[in-house]
Input
Amino acid sequence: MRLTRRDFAHSALAAGIAAALPATLFSGCSVSNAARTATSASAASHPAQFDSPFEIPFPKGFFWGATTAAYQIEGAWNEDGKGESIWDRFAHTPGKIRNGDTGDTACDSYHRLSEDLALMRAMNLNSYRFSISWPRFQPAGSGPANSKAVDHYSRLIDALLEARIRPFITLYHWDLPQVLQDAGGWPNRDTASRFADYVELAARALGDRVSDWLLFNEPLTFTYEGYLDGTHAPGRKSIFDFLRACHTVNLAQGAGFHALKATRPTARVGTALLMSACEPAADTEDDRRAAERADAISNLWFLEPALKGRYPEALAFFPETAIGIKSADFDMMRAPLDFIGINLYYRTIASAPSAIERLTNPQQWLFPVKMEGGQQGPKTDRGWEVWPSVLYDVVTRITRDFNRPQIEITESGCSYNDGPDANGVIRDARRIEYHRQYLQALARAITDGADIRGYHAWSLLDNFEWAEGFSQRFGLTYVDFKTQQRTLKESGKWYAKVAARNALPAST
Ligand code: FCB
Output
């Protein structure tokens, strides 16, 4: 299987880690059989799809939202004092992005606040998750805020509040100031302090009107893709950089949490993690252990440090010296998050390599985990399996294992590249079906006791999909990237009905 951001550990994590670390480092490898896997019996007992003839209500005050990220929509990459980000540098490097696309203009949202606001209103949203561009806000990666950026985000926040839409801010959605990358980037543990300073600056400037914050978006994705696999900015390929970057992010999560709370004690602070149910390919002990390791790296690697002050037991064989752990770090990583943000798209099937694969591939001998996306459900245009019950499985599992935390679904969505028909209508029935089924699964989790505060569709509008450039359309709104004209898709109209009724309609 070709490695992509989604297929992250399908072999490269295994291969990369094992290839780069001396074999002796793994000799103490121990895995607790007692530790649970994310495998859920409910995946088998609940069908992937189910139909209800009745309207399904959601809790009062439920947040119906959509999500975007600065680099994917803003454009204006070098305007009003914005500093260069690692994504500017990466996208400007030939050969890194499909079709040579860049986020230089993206959806031009920096100049189109009112158009984007109109879309949110048309969809009856009451929550908008967007990210602050760190290099726009603090161009030098340290020091004062850029007043033009403060004005920009203030305008957006004020307009949202006026429209009775909750501003839900992600502080880091992957666009590190290039100047900090030049100083070592996330593998440099000083970046944790830089991040905490930036968080404090943002909280001071905007926290009088914003109460809901996310520190990071998908830490595993940007550390893995950016520092091990090299398919995302800054395009590094080093196992040591990867492990150290992960650790700095965990330190930054703790430091950022406390900086925000010190500045705005009543703020609600969480982090958005890409999660997946990791099912063993077969009901064997080896595959179950592989699923346990897959689960630990996918779901717990950035959660247990925050909530439990430790790294997952199933990954205890990663050497502390390679990660760069110092004695006080476990306390520094602690961050009693007010809620957990979950980005969820698909499930993961984990297996142990066969004896022959292990013999012929020493990497798999050392890190015996293979991970693949599921193959049974329908696929989106991005190639990801649609498997709605994974949302139920993950949410109920996190509810069980972490003492019923507040949860926000911070992203879910699908790429289907349907365009306008002869009448200019974008009939994206498959996207409606995707959200309907995932929301049904979510409603079931709520009925079974999960404390879910909101659901945010990825994405408000078609945008720049990282290394895939503009080739993947995830939006509830169609964007003509030549004219920047925005048109609500049929899915956007459907979502508007759901949000207005605070319930899933009986049929599409
Ligand atoms: C998520 C990212 C988001 C977007 C969607 C499709 O992993 O957080 O920026 O790329 O995938």
